[in-house]
Amino acid sequence: MILPIIVNAAVRMLLVGAAAWLVLRLVRTRNPHVEALVWRMTLLACVALPALLYWGLAPNFDALELPAIVAGTGTGPAATAISAADALPVGLLASIYLAVMLLLLGRLAVGLAGTWRISRAARPMASDDDVRISARIRSPATFGTIILLPVGAPAWPSERLDAVLAHERAHVQSRDGYWSWLAQLHAAIFWFSPLAWLLQRRLEVLAETTSDDAVVAARHDPVAYAALLLDFARHPNSRSVAMSVAESNVSERIERLLARIPPASTLPRIARWAAVSLLVPVVVFAASTTNTRAEPPAQTASVPVTASPAPTLVAVRLSVVANPDNYYPAVAMSENVSGYAVVEVDVDALGQLVGARVVKVEPADPRLGFADAALQVARNTIFENTSQQVASMRFMVKFELKT
After folding, report:
1. pLDDT in tens, 182-194
2. Most exposed residue of 58, 185, 190, 255, measured as fewest CB within 10 angstroms of its CB?
3. Mean pLDDT, 10 residues at a time, the chain of 403 residues
4. Rounded to whole angstroms, how far apart are CA atoms 203 and 107?
5. What pLDDT score was predicted for residue 295?
6. How many CA atoms within 13 Å lie on the side-chain side of 386?
7. DSSP output for 213-229
8. Distance (Å, rounded) from C-alpha 131 to C-alpha 232?
9. Closest CA to 33 of 207, 182, 274
């Protein structure tokens, strides 16, 4: 199923995003270009992570903890829950997730299509850039590499027009529109994750801040440009029309301009490549999984079910566990003996059991029957194999007498 992978990726990237936020706070960076680069790399990691998890491309690490099934006697529960998610109405949750995702994707698609039609119908303006004039634009905006201006723009004073073009060119050169679209697409898919909305908002805010710095760096008067922003804020574009950058934090931008904060220096190309090279190990580490591995067995009892292929060590999840209480060994029950067995199973791409072995059992006395009972539990357990390849896992069956 895709939904568990999406949820898994969201949880992992929430931790990565928290780490990125903590690093930014600790270093106290004042350069918006640096912060924008960090969040852009985080966004790329969020987009790449589900693919790594789906195809199982990340490495796997061994761990000593094992999922456990508890078998007992008496009036205990029919089966021990392996995961809280298994008890939830998965179908209802999936329906809600898909409905919200499709709604957000539809809104994004409508906005992009509407702005594309506006840009196609707009009248080109004489400029070195792709600048177009449209009556449906109330204030300047960008659509990809296209700069859209309202109909009165050609008659603006040269100082005003140059400042506006400097701001919009900065958006085009930084590919802010494309990053905004990617962030909105990510937010539509991971709408339940607060990190998705944080990334979208911060990237849009930082895009406006760095573009304002480009205007000041071009030696335009910050106070006059602040008044220009206030004028444009009174005539905002519709969200369904201007999709490149959402509503900006105009008040904070004006305060920054009036404070005459020097424009931040742009990052060299080598810094961006260094960030990309750092992104690869971060994504691989975030996508890595752990294989449940038992400690080296003191005594081993092996009871094969079928001849099993050499498994790829990919984490497999216990999905539905048959009532293990039905398999408590009669001899052990009569002698009031508790114990456990560690079982290794092999499953095919569909999660069907193809092999099972007991790699450790305590007490090891075969007369008590813990090994055979654990194999019976394994044969009646349903496994979820999201790797879609031959895989293996280990889990523990605990035999405990209940009162």
Report:
1. 999 999 999 999 9
2. 255
3. 80 90 90 93 91 71 56 43 42 87 94 91 90 91 92 91 94 93 95 95 93 94 92 77 58 90 88 84 71 37 33 45 71 86 85 87 90 88 76 83 65
4. 19
5. 39
6. 22
7. HHHHHTT--HHHHHHHH
8. 18
9. 207
pLDDT reported for residue 290: 47
> Hey, which CATH number is domain 65-84+294-401, 3.30.2420.10, 3.10.20.740, 3.40.50.360, 2.40.340.10?
3.30.2420.10
Question: How far is 174 from 300, CA to CA, in rounded Å?
Answer: 61
Query: CA angle, 163 as apex, 33 and 174 as ends, to 5°?
Result: 30
Residue 74: per-residue pLDDT: 44
Q: How many CB atoms lie within 10 A of CB 161?
A: 18
Query: Is there a contact between 1 and 8 (Cβ–Cβ < 8 Å)?
Result: no
- Mark 199-235 as b/e (b = at least 16 C-beta within 10 Å): bbebbbbbbbbbbbbbbbebebebeebbebbeebeee
Work out whether strand 339-347 and strand 353-362 pair parallel, antiparallel, or are unpaired: antiparallel
Long-range contacts of 104-109 (CB under 8 A, 24+ apart): 104/184, 104/187, 104/188, 104/191, 105/185, 105/188, 105/189, 107/240, 108/181, 108/184, 108/185, 108/188, 108/243
Helix H or strand E segment including 340: strand 339-347
Q: Which pLDDT value is given to residue 301?
A: 31
DSSP string over 29-55: ---HHHHHHHHHHHHHHHHHHHHHHHH
Q: Are 39 and 21 in contact (CB under 8 A)?
A: no
Q: Look at the alpha carbons of 232, 234, 240, 243 in this order and tell me if their dihedral is positive or negative.
A: positive
Query: Is the peptide bond preceding residue 297 cis, with omega within 30 degrees of 0?
Result: no
Q: What is the pLDDT at residue 30?
A: 87
- Report residue 177 CA to chain centroid gap: 21
Q: Max CA-CA distance within the chain?
A: 98
The full set of domain ranges for the chain reads 65-84+294-401, 89-247
Half-sphere exposure of 91 (CA within 13 A, CB side): 0
Runs of H (alpha helix) within 220-318: 222-233, 250-258, 269-287
